[in-house]
């Protein structure tokens, strides 16, 4: 009734299989909070849901479906979730069907990203279910970037009519090989659903999205390409050799702008197509050169994903120290602030003016840390460090 009152018509195609035929429903693509209509369309099936998503009105209603909770940032919770899915899918008791959005995050429906294998571990038949929004205006897509939930809800309510199509595809029965390999099972089901939707598949995961979002938040150079950069570094052996971190410790060296051959020489790489691709990602089109400190900062970010932000910040202070004096000028600190702390140029200039000693015109890493510890707006720098407790302003 709520959906109808909001002007949204839900069309259901195909037949929902019984729990006996398919204990698990696999739903994709996941693109909107409005996908919650699938719970009601599937006769109150039990969803796999983030615990933090339940602290709202809709979350309270979903509690009635006996959901399986997962804390996505807790590795132990993931294992417990898989165990619970297996128990429910293979139980002789009259549990509701388990409903899973295997992508694990919202996309824009232009493709299907990697399916998480959790729902495929039981090795039981699953029923693929597709969701489409065949509307002239897309007011529902809620992804990492773009309008927030309230704006999307308002835009949807301003439409005279919105449509949602839910299609139940034939039950997918796994082979013996797929039962032994949940990842293979997940890939094959994804291929079937992508064919039905007429979209390609893309091997991106929720963790990839989170990595890219974090890089963009901090202003890391070439943030949107961090996943591809990580793959190329692994192919070239840079991830294993840790050469980039060694270069960071010494500083970027003389000549900050480098050409293709010098880029390969500094990283001890052969000049072949993979090296060329890595160079091209960072190359500035106007000059045909790469600003080497930017590359090293991005490489350090990828190498130190689980390290405190202060460690990356200390590296940035070395990389953008043009005189190798241990002290940054205002222009140098602006490079650090915009590339490592997600600051605007004005905010970086303001922080420098207040953190640098009077009339010195320069700032050390320790001086900035001492200043940042006293400012609430910089508390995110110390969020993962138990020994750093930001003081209140």
TrEMBL record:
<keyword id="KW-1133">Transmembrane helix</keyword>
<keyword id="KW-1208">Phospholipid metabolism</keyword>
<dbReference type="GO" id="GO:0042171">
    <property type="term" value="F:lysophosphatidic acid acyltransferase activity"/>
</dbReference>
<keyword id="KW-0808">Transferase</keyword>
<keyword id="KW-0472">Membrane</keyword>
<dbReference type="InterPro" id="IPR045252">
    <property type="entry name" value="LPCAT1-like"/>
</dbReference>
<comment type="pathway">
    <text>Phospholipid metabolism.</text>
</comment>
<keyword id="KW-0812">Transmembrane</keyword>
<keyword id="KW-0012">Acyltransferase</keyword>
<keyword id="KW-0443">Lipid metabolism</keyword>
<dbReference type="Pfam" id="PF01553">
    <property type="entry name" value="Acyltransferase"/>
</dbReference>
<keyword id="KW-0594">Phospholipid biosynthesis</keyword>
<dbReference type="GO" id="GO:0008654">
    <property type="term" value="P:phospholipid biosynthetic process"/>
</dbReference>
<feature type="domain" description="Phospholipid/glycerol acyltransferase">
    <location>
        <begin position="24"/>
        <end position="134"/>
    </location>
</feature>
<dbReference type="GO" id="GO:0008374">
    <property type="term" value="F:O-acyltransferase activity"/>
</dbReference>
<dbReference type="GO" id="GO:0005783">
    <property type="term" value="C:endoplasmic reticulum"/>
</dbReference>
<comment type="pathway">
    <text>Lipid metabolism; phospholipid metabolism.</text>
</comment>
<dbReference type="InterPro" id="IPR011992">
    <property type="entry name" value="EF-hand-dom_pair"/>
</dbReference>
<dbReference type="InterPro" id="IPR002123">
    <property type="entry name" value="Plipid/glycerol_acylTrfase"/>
</dbReference>
<comment type="similarity">
    <text>Belongs to the 1-acyl-sn-glycerol-3-phosphate acyltransferase family.</text>
</comment>
<protein>
    <submittedName>
        <fullName>Lysophosphatidylcholine acyltransferase</fullName>
    </submittedName>
</protein>
<dbReference type="GO" id="GO:0016020">
    <property type="term" value="C:membrane"/>
</dbReference>
<keyword id="KW-0444">Lipid biosynthesis</keyword>
